[in-house]
Amino acid sequence: MRKKRLTMWLGLALAGLTATAQQPQDTLKYRISLTDKAATTYSIDKPEEFLSAKSIARRQRQGLPIDSTDLPVCKKYVDELRQTGAHIVLTGKWENFVTVSLSDPQVLARIEKLPFVGKVEEVWVMPHKKPTEAKRDTLKEHITLCGADSLYGKATAQIQMSHGDRLHQAGFKGEGMTIGVIDAGYHNADRISSMQNIRVLGTKDFVAPDGDIYAEHSHGMMVLSCMAMNKPRYMVGTAPEASYWLLRSEDGASEQPVEEDYWAAAVEYADSVGVDLINTSLGYFVYDDKSKSYKYCQLDGRTSLMTRQAARAADKGIVLVCAAGNEGDGTWKKITPPADADNVLTVGAIDKNGTLALFSSLGNTADGRIKPDVVAVGHQSTVMNTDGNLHHANGTSFASPTMCGMVACLWQALPHLTAKQIIELVRRSGDRADCPDNVYGYGVPDLWKAYQEAKGNQ
């Protein structure tokens, strides 16, 4: 998704991030990259002091090491940054950075002189236009059930395309799996009657920490419905029995690099609360300040902050599923970060006949890796609307959660596999796996076939 084309013990020590309300007088935000973690008071030998039990268990189950990237940003460095007069917006431990807000250039000069400060990047300038005040839509729910033989209602084709319904029939509907959703807002998801049985474990807003994610953009609510809806003969999503964390990182007031900082913090938070998978239908390649926009050659898996952060998720035992982007019929054409990340599932969009949607972004990456990885229904997808009724929507934004939910069910069925093994299994089950390309990637996965293959190899 882009705005122009809709294409807890958890503090600093645990999650490696903090967020505070934006100071009204601050007009600038900077990403401060730190040179080291030499002043840390933590040790990787005592991970229980900075990681949740769920995060540790996930790593242990997959045989993954706890390393220096898991250590929180040094409190001593954060305190010294605060003493310059800067306000701390958030911290990111995996990339070892602090995002600050300020308005006085002298504060920035003091920051740049600190011995532990490396690169300093401007990531936000106060926009001239004030953000529109979030308002709730009026609910006009009108539930019409489909035929008795249509358990999934109008969303039947979305799950049958990859035989996710067969996983459901075998008893794998996402029970015990936790999915983090990082998006722009979940407008009215807490009020729509047919969404009230969704298992939401919690919410967090990284753009406006005191805000209400249920009064913000509708995009995340529609994304959530593709996975989590559980009203038989009306709409059943691809992981109706999974549990969800709803996180917001998209700022609708402008398009600026700080949204990558919010997103990076959201990923670390999702790790901290113990999610198994993350779905993100956000992607960025052009910013209001065009000098900060990306170029084709930077789709290399290591340039954008979001891409680097996404690539680390599997190293922490998390399967990250992301939208390829909706630029296929525009001038950009290509995937949008973080879709160029390694060790993630980048999802393109097809229609219900299996034909690529014209808007679906193309690969490959600048360094020659296959993208998208797979495809799922994203043209005329059935989604929930803010008025409480189903409607159709287009975008890789909806192909991604549709696939993410099915992958959650597959992993529920194969809990002995690691995140990277699940990703590779999904790719291998694609109908173009023998000859992947930059349009469909490995193709439409057959997740029932993937399950049978993996089960047979046990």
Short description:
With 458 residues, the chain is of the alpha/beta class.
Notes on the structure:
The protein is an alpha/beta fold and 458 residues long. The chain has helices at residues 12-15, 53-61, 75-83, 105-112, 156-160, 164-169, 219-228, 258-272, 305-313, 396-413, 419-428, 447-456, and strands at residues 28-34, 87-92, 97-102, 117-125, 178-183, 199-205, 230-231, 235-236, 243-248, 277-280, 319-323, 345-350, 374-377, 381-384, 390-393. The strands form 4 sheets. Strands 6-9-5-10-11-12-13 form a 7-stranded parallel beta sheet, sandwiched between helices. Strand 7 (230-231) and strand 8 (235-236) form a beta hairpin. Helix 7 (219-228) packs parallel to helix 10 and helix 8 runs parallel beside helix 9 (305-313). The two termini are 39 Å apart. Mean pLDDT is 93; it is low at 2-23.
Q: Could you give the topology of this structure?
A:
Elements: H1 12-15, E1 28-34, H2 53-61, H3 75-83, E2 87-92, E3 97-102, H4 105-112, E4 117-125, H5 156-160, H6 164-169, E5 178-183, E6 199-205, H7 219-228, E7 230-231, E8 235-236, E9 243-248, H8 258-272, E10 277-280, H9 305-313, E11 319-323, E12 345-350, E13 374-377, E14 381-384, E15 390-393, H10 396-413, H11 419-428, H12 447-456
Parallel strand pairs: 5-9, 5-10, 6-9, 10-11, 11-12, 12-13
Antiparallel strand pairs: 1-3, 1-4, 2-3, 7-8, 14-15
Helix pairs in contact: 7-10, 8-9, 10-12
